[in-house]
User: Which sequence fits this backbone?
């Protein structure tokens, strides 16, 4: 393991993640963990020079394309690579797999969102060089990638050549999403590559320009332009660099697409790029944006364990880099913008695991993410119609607003049959429709955003409830939901998954409640929605079916059946699989059909029900279900341990809660050097924040009221974090002895602290004794 977390000191303490040894067999891990992004685009942190096992990637949010073919689905295309730079030093091509690495570190500075590499390299011919690489993806200007390379020859003078440009020959694991476009060099300075997606007809335009300095004096080297299919490069010859003299090369690149809300044409994009400044000026604006928009907005402080402070900053760093705050037509992928994993699609990960961070920390962004779901109602309606249902049936995987379902049909190989495994989630994992409704309600309770509800929220609650009433099946004197996949994706085609049934019931009840409320408060809006969603007829069905929907109840041991047959399935010893270093080790011995007949749970299922609808279950029921299900849960999904950590806090087991948090925070940051090859784990990263704030900080919203019941880990001496409640910003500090809440707003805030109702007046601080 070559990642270190304690390299930072003083002002940089707990801000740096450093790779101390070049490991060509583990490139994917660092490419994803160190990835750079600004919500508009995400750049995997491949090196300037190329290596055999790398996975170069630059992904622009919302630019989906579908390659022609029955087995292909819509995915986020891998845009042109603008970071490649090939250096030849006195005839030796710079390559860390050749020669000798005398010193090496690669560091991601979370505070400044800058990646750097410091290398002392001896070439195969024996010459030594110091090379310093830095780069960032600008938060100030969403289109810009900037790189700087400083090279110092240490043993002799240097004859340097550089080949650098724009490579549009990128694919998504072999699939080419772009047609050939215009290549051009402007004023012997700016390279341009245009591309056009094959099916979605999106125009991409990429620009790159270089600047050279020798001992801080600008100069223009001799250069030659080369063009190839979807590729434009320039060969530079900067001349002789004397021993111990430093040459600095800056490469500034930009990407623009016709999906941009401010897109006009290529010439306008060129004009915007031409006005771009140098690396240092761009970096200062970028660093200021991170400080004002991120670290001042989300100043979470953990005292006691340095790694934990780093981990929450890592989570906030990636939550910022993956979230398209610039455009409500886009959402968050399960891998963010850090890799091809899950094809850039949005899942329930957004609403259940990521959105709570924004709902309580930056409600404006939370609203935009929910507006995406509102704008995608037509696609959800089409999916419902295609499946002979009514209302809005949201896709398990979403891409374009109007696409509907985009989940791939076939997945990994079946270990027994040798055939591809069918992915049923897109057909029968339907709880996401209620998950979206839950997120809408949660956002409204935290913010009181009536404008959102009138424009989007009420319709989302009603449209989803219309789906559920059409989905329920009458069985004797009750209604059931059969043939589904719940959160536990190791159980397919099950009847009455507890999570699905309870969430559907909750969705119906909330629709009834807000229908009644609008009837009294805003009959005009209700009339408008009634005409669209046939509410008079559906309202009656909601009432009838919600009252008769089967909700699995705790048995004599207080265990809630995960589904109709789970408790009667075979039990096997899961210890070898729970201790395995790789996810999915179970499937080296069994196929999914076999696992379907065993009491094995992939991830939190009943457990997440007890978390989301926690006030519907007693502490005794929660404890009984933990004792039953956690030993049977493999945590083969990255989102699982965060949920379990929060529940462990609720159950009063601080040590177990902290242990689960440690494992969750190390899914990307930990020692498994293959865990993040396909991209970082967005749900887990959102879950880390939830563990800190909702678990250890004890923040909850129950029945529209704010509760605070901290459970600080024994290893922590203090925790500080901000939250927003009904427009008021509360700054909370928890220690082992006290809790301090500062209300920075002009309105009083009521909440329950450790079971006692209090009111904190405007611009005042409350502290427990």
Assistant:
């Amino acid at each position: 393991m070559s990642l270190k977390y304690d390299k930072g000191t003083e002002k940089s303490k707990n801000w740096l993640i450093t790779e101390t040894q070049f490991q060509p067999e583990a490139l994917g891990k660092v490419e994803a963990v160190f990835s750079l992004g600004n919500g508009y685009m995400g750049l995997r942190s491949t090196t300037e020079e190329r290596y055999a096992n790398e996975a170069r990637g630059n992904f622009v949010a919302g630019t989906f394309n579908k390659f022609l073919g029955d087995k292909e689905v819509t995915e986020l295309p891998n845009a042109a690579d603008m970071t490649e730079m090939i250096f030849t030093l006195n005839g030796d091509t710079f390559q860390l797999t050749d020669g000798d690495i005398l010193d090496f570190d690669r560091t991601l500075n979370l505070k400044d969102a800058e990646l750097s590499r410091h290398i002392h390299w001896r070439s195969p011919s024996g010459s030594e060089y110091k090379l310093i690489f830095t780069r960032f993806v600008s938060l100030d200007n969403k289109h810009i990638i900037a790189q700087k390379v400083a090279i110092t020859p240490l043993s002799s003078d240097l004859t340097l050549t550089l080949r650098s440009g724009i490579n549009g020959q990128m694919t998504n694991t072999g699939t080419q999403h772009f047609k050939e476009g215009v290549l051009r060099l402007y004023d012997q300075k700016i390279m341009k590559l245009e591309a056009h997606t094959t099916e979605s007809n999106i125009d991409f335009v990429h620009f790159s320009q270089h600047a050279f300095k020798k001992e801080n004096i600008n100069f223009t080297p001799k250069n030659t332009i080369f063009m190839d299919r979807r590729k434009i490069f320039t060969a530079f010859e900067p001349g002789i660099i004397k021993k111990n003299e430093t040459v600095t090369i800056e490469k500034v690149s930009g990407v623009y697409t016709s999906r941009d809300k401010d897109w006009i044409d290529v010439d306008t994009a060129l004009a915007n790029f031409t006005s771009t400044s140098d690396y240092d000026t761009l970096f200062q604006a970028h660093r200021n944006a991170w400080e004002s928009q991120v670290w001042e907005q989300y100043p979470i402080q953990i005292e006691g364990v340095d790694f934990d402070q780093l981990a929450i900053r890592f989570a906030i760093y990636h939550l910022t880099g993956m979230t398209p705050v610039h455009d409500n037509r886009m959402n968050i992928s399960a891998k963010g913008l850090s890799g091809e994993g899950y094809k850039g699609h949005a899942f329930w990960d957004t609403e259940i695991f990521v959105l709570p961070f924004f709902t309580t920390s930056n409600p404006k962004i939370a609203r935009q993410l929910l507006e995406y779901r509102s704008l995608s109602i037509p696609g959800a309606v089409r999916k419902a119609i295609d499946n002979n249902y009514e209302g809005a049936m949201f896709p398990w995987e979403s891409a374009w607003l109007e696409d509907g379902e985009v989940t791939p049909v076939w997945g990994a190989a079946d270990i027994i049959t040798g055939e591809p495994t069918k992915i049923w989630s897109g057909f029968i994992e339907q709880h996401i429709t209620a998950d979206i409704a839950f997120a809408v309600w949660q956002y409204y309770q935290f913010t009181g955003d009536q404008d959102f509800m009138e424009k989007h929220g009420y319709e989302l609650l009603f449209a989803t409830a219309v789906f559920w009433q059409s989905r329920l099946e009458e069985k004797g004197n009750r209604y059931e939901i059969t043939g589904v996949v719940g959160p536990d994706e190791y159980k397919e085609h099950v009847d009455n998954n507890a999570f699905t049934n309870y969430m559907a019931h909750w969705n119906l009840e909330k629709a009834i409640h807000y229908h009644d409320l609008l009837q009294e408060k805003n009959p005009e809006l209700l009339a408008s929605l009634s005409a669209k969603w046939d509410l008079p007829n559906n309202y009656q069905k909601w009432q009838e079916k919600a009252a008769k929907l089967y909700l699995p109840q705790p048995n004599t041991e207080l265990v809630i059946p995960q589904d109709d047959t789970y408790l009667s399935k075979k039990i096997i010893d899961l210890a070898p699989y729970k201790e395995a270093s790789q996810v999915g080790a179970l499937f080296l011995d069994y196929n999914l059909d076999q696992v379907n007949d065993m009491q094995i749970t992939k991830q939190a299922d009943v457990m997440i029900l007890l978390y989301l609808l926690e006030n519907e279950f007693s502490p005794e029921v929660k404890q009984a279900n933990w004792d039953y299900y956690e030993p049977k849960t493999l945590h083969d999904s990255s989102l699982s341990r965060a949920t379990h950590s929060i529940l462990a806090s609720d159950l009063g087991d601080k040590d177990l809660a902290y242990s689960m948090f440690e494992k969750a925070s190390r899914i990307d940051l930990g020692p498994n050097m293959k865990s993040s090859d396909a991209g970082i784990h967005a749900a887990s990263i959102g879950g880390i924040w939830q563990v800190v704030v909702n678990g250890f900080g004890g923040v909850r919203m129950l029945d529209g009221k704010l509760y605070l019941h901290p459970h600080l880990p024994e290893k922590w001496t203090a925790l500080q974090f901000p939250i927003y409640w009904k427009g008021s910003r509360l700054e909370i500090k928890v220690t082992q002895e006290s809790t301090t809440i500062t209300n920075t707003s002009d309105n009083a805030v009521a909440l329950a602290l450790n079971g006692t109702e209090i009111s904190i007046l405007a611009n005042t601080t409350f502290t427990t004794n």
In short: The chain has a mean pLDDT of 95. The chain is about 30% helix and 25% strand. The longest helix spans residues 498-521.
